[in-house]
Amino acid sequence: MRTYSIVLLPGDGIGPEVTAVARAAMESVAALSGFALKFSEHAFGGASIDRFGEPLTAETLRACQASDAIFLGAVGGPKWDKAASRPEAGLLGLRKALQVYSNLRPVSVHPALAGKSPLRAELVAGVDMLIVRELTGGIYFGARQKREDYASDECAYSRAEIERVAHIAFQQARLRRGKLMSVDKANVLETSRLWRRVVSEMGARTYPDIELGHMYVDAAAMHLLRDPASFDVVLTENMFGDILSDEASMLPGSIGLLGSASLGDTRPGVFEPIHGSAPDIAGQDEANPFGAIESVAQLFEAGLGETEAAARLRAAVGAMHEAGDWTGDLGGTLTCSEAGIRLIQHLERQPAMAAG
Fold it and tell me: Is 246 marked active-site?
């Protein structure tokens, strides 16, 4: 039997709650799909600061590097705002150490959720996009200076960094509808001018079959609200991708619905819901676990190559949407743990898929 090693990093706030649902879902799908999972759990982020004085210990990093995939719940919270090392530093350190340079964030609107969007239902009908965000370069990883009355953050990109993430985006576009929109700020920033030139050269040289467009980030932010269904694959740099994907997360009605996959050239990848640690509802069993479940589907599909398991999981989530089995943020009555139980019930009603 195929056996995979999975590292769980529950993290902070609602992270442990959604991680518990994610683990139960992983175990259920693995049993139904004919493979095994071996789990190890480690403190990470603020939880690691509390126990070990740092957000990412050498032991945790070694466990991650030796695994087949990593599931992360959430990190951060006001408790650690004045800590010498913030929880988010552990996340940046993990991404850099594993060289997971591409972050894939799918955004789609299930028909049953169209009425939950803050936009009109007809605007979000048919939304199905993939945001590909560069993850280990740019301003988040640049040199920093800080004095009493001055601070600076360097944004830098090399051709090689742009090319490797652009290849991912072009290849994803080939698997989808053949459209790629590259987002930059080339009218102002030198890094963006390089970004646009490199992506344009790649499109002409290697991917002439892909319909390539370019858009300034401010125009893209507006277009996401005006005509979101027009996007197929969106490629952008680190900070722009962070902001745009959070904006896009509201199209289906809740940031709690969406997952992400952070990938490099080799295993392991890091899979996490895009929401934060939500300390205001932590410990109350109110979190929406659907983003964590979508992250598990990406873990199976992109991380392990278990595409049937991913399809099984997404089918169960779709059945929950059709039945109105939702948590409170979507107007439902289920708690986080109850949503996990209901998901497994839907999974166990899929005998035909198990036979396939």
Answer: yes
Taking only the tens place, the pLDDT of each residue in 153-163 is 999 999 999 99
Q: What is the pTM of this model?
A: 0.94
- Is pLDDT at 207 greater than 60 in this prediction? yes
Q: Which of 140, 157, 207, 325 is catalytic?
A: 140
1-101+265-356 in CATH: which number? 3.40.718.10
Instruction: State both tokens at 287.
Output: 């979190």
Q: What is the number of residues in the chain?
A: 356
Among 4, 12, 185, 325, the one annotated catalytic: 185
- Please check whether residue 34 is in contact with residue 1, taking contact to mean a CB–CB distance below 8 angstroms: yes
Residue 352: pLDDT above 80? no
Task: Please give the DSSP secondary-structure letter assigned to residue 215.
Answer: E
List the catalytic residue out of 50, 68, 128, 246. 246
Binding-site annotation: residue ranges for Mg(2+):
218, 242, 246
* Fold equal for 1-101+265-356 and 102-263: yes
Active site residue 140: yes
The identity of residue 321, as a single letter, is H
**Could you report the per-residue pLDDT of 56-110, keeping only the tens digit for each?**
999 999 999 999 999 999 999 999 998 888 999 999 999 999 999 999 999 999 9
User: Mind listing the pLDDT tens digit for each residue in 98-141?
Assistant: 999 999 999 999 999 999 999 999 999 999 999 999 999 999 99
* 227 belongs to the catalytic site: no
Instruction: Report CA 234 to chain centroid distance, whole Å.
Output: 14
Helix (H) or strand (E) holding 261: strand 259-263
Query: What stretch of H or E contains 90?
Result: helix 87-98
Domain covering 102-263: architecture? 3-Layer(aba) Sandwich (3.40)
Catalytic site includes residue 242:
yes
- Other beta carbons within 10 angstroms of residue 169's beta carbon come to 27
* Of residues 74, 129, 72, 125, the one with CA closest to residue 104: 129
Q: Which DSSP string corresponds to 14-78?
A: THHHHHHHHHHHHHHHHHHHTEEEEEEE---THHHHHHHSSSS-HHHHHHHHTSSEEEEEE---G
Which positions make up the binding site for NAD(+)?
276-288
